[in-house]
Amino acid sequence: MPQAILALNAGSSSIKFAAYRVGTGSELTLACKGSLDRHAREAKLIVKDAASTVLQEHTSESVDSSSALTTLLLGRIEPLLGDAELAAVGHRVVHGGPTFSAPVLVDSAVLQALDALTPLAPLHQPGCLDPIRSLISVRPRLLQVACFDTAFHHDLPPTYRRFPLPAEFEADGIRRYGFHGLSFEYIARSLDSVEARVVVAHLGSGSSLCAIRNGKSVNTTMSLTPLDGLMMATRSGAIDPGLVLYLQQTKNMSASEIEELLYHRSGLIGLSGISSDMRILLASDDLKAKEAIDQFCACVAEQIAAMATCMSGVDLLVFTGGIGENSPEIRKQICARLNWLGLRIDDEANMRGHNSISTRESRFAVRVIPTDEESVIAMQTRDIIDRANLEDPNRIAKNPA
């Protein structure tokens, strides 16, 4: 019987998904894709085919349990797979820590180890692991694979991997991990020349940059946690570490209060006091909205220059992610701050959302490439399943957890 793989990309209140049929030679063909958004009062499911034609739209009362949410999702997707049987589900997991440097089949020990990493990604890790637990509950025999956002950066050179702290801290796993690795891997796979010096700007609610050379991560802006680096929708990004001490010692703020401040009340929403949504800020005439946008663009431009420095130059700048792909104004403002590097963009191509937006006179190319994390999850899951079946042909029939 033909097989299918489901890729799940879970957030705190939504799940993006894509289902693929596995063909001859393990080729993957997109069967359907979509999203499941859960809000306070309702859950909204949208399913599209490979050409982005809407196949289903379904709204129901919001469900409290992850198991019910997963059951709803599977119930809508599986009938669209035709004669293919769902063989495995791949999950985006934000933090793999020092142990998980490649995709892995999930069992109870793996799940426990991933749960222990929650303090390093409190905003993301629980949402990534909930669907895994739900599937164990409703489909205990279904194989599940964890695919890590940190894995792409696992082999960062020591210059950019290590913090300037005593060696024993790195021995305890305190190092730069980096995130958005599935997105960066997709971009790296899609480029014609792996030798190019590439800076990828993944800009969205969470934002980070990555310097890529020879298809590998050289440096990145996020580090131990997804809080570091660029300012984001609600996250502060890099700040003076002494601020944390000051807030504790002088303002008597607890660790949980500081976590709430830096993860949920900072960044665009903190600076503007209006919204964490870049679209709303761009439409606003409020001076604070402009200040928040200016600081965001200045921070991104500065760090693009830093990423270029670690490669002794840049051949290609790629914009991706929700803001990077869809906001020509933000791209324009960021690139204007890099004119001193010889960057020149074609304003009309940029406004029309063309793939290539640099001029012929530009010292390096600038492209807009929509990311596809789900396809990377599916490929990594397929590879793990192929390997597992080679090692044990009966593995598909065993309970992984």
From TrEMBL:
Record's subcellular location: Cytoplasm
Does the keyword Metal-binding feature in the UniProt annotation? yes
| Binding of substrate, residues | R92
Q: In which pathway does it act?
A: Metabolic intermediate biosynthesis; acetyl-CoA biosynthesis; acetyl-CoA from acetate: step 1/2
- Substrates-to-products reaction catalysed: acetate + ATP = acetyl phosphate + ADP
Per the record, where is site Transition state stabilizer?
A: H180, R235
Q: Which Gene3D superfamilies match?
A: 3.30.420.40
**Any binding details for the cofactor?**
Mg(2+). Can also accept Mn(2+).
UniProt: ATP binding residues: K16, H202, L203, G204, S205, G206, D277, M278, R279, G322, I323, G324, E325, N326
Enzyme class, top EC level, equals transferase
* Keywords associated with the record: ATP-binding, Cytoplasm, Kinase, Magnesium, Metal-binding, Nucleotide-binding, Transferase
Any GO molecular function: acetate kinase activity
- Taxonomically, which superkingdom? Bacteria
- Record family assignment: Belongs to the acetokinase family.
| Functional note | Catalyzes the formation of acetyl phosphate from acetate and ATP. Can also catalyze the reverse reaction.
Protein's name according to its UniProt entry: Acetate kinase
Per the UniProt record, the source organism is Bradyrhizobium algeriense
